[in-house]
Amino acid sequence: MTASDTPFRNKLDALAKALKTYHKALLHFARGEYEFLHGPVKNEFELYSLVMNNPDFQWLRPLSGLMATLDDVLDSKNTTLTQRNVDDVKGALGLLYSDTDARFADFRAGYARAKSDPAVRETEAKWRELLNGLEA
């Protein structure tokens, strides 16, 4: 990490934290959908197993993967972060929500169901605000 990458690192770190909160809200929503159909999830271990293995949670995986990649970039202390890193994150999020990319149709369908949830709306507004504040 260098002093020159600190503004990029700080902004991307704040975005990563906001995305985690958003992901948690989406996961809570997905859990509610699952429990409505299948009954209560008994504990966090069962939830983890469902998230990893159950098709009802698969729609969250593209966002999970994007967040893991962002965490890897941020954890790499020997990498200088630049506007390119910011642009990559913006582009990846854009593709995730773009109707033109069929790879993420399942995510967008899950998101369409979840976006009426107040916690999802609130946390989405936060990460979008941070994303919009990143340098162009």
Description:
With 136 residues, the chain is mostly helical. The protein has one domain (3-133). It has helices at residues 6-38, 44-53, 61-75, 83-97, 105-114, 118-133. The longest helix has 33 residues, at 6-38. The model has no long low-confidence stretch (mean pLDDT 93).
Distance between the termini: 22 Å
Residue stretches low in confidence (pLDDT < 50, at least 5 long) are none
Question: Which H/E pattern describes the elements?
Answer: HHHHHH
| Count of the separate structural domains | 1
Number of helices: 6
Q: How many extended strands? A: 0
Structural class, from helix and strand content?
mainly alpha
Please describe the biggest sheet, giving its number of strands, its sense, and whether it closes into a barrel: none
Determine Rg (CA atoms, Å).
16 Å
Short description:
By secondary structure, this protein is mainly alpha-helical. It is about 75% helix and about 0% strand.
Q: How does the SSE layout of this entry go?
A:
Blueprint: H1 6-38, H2 44-53, H3 61-75, H4 83-97, H5 105-114, H6 118-133
Helix pairs in contact: 1-3, 1-6, 3-4
Index terms:
6 helices, 73% helix, globular, 136 residues
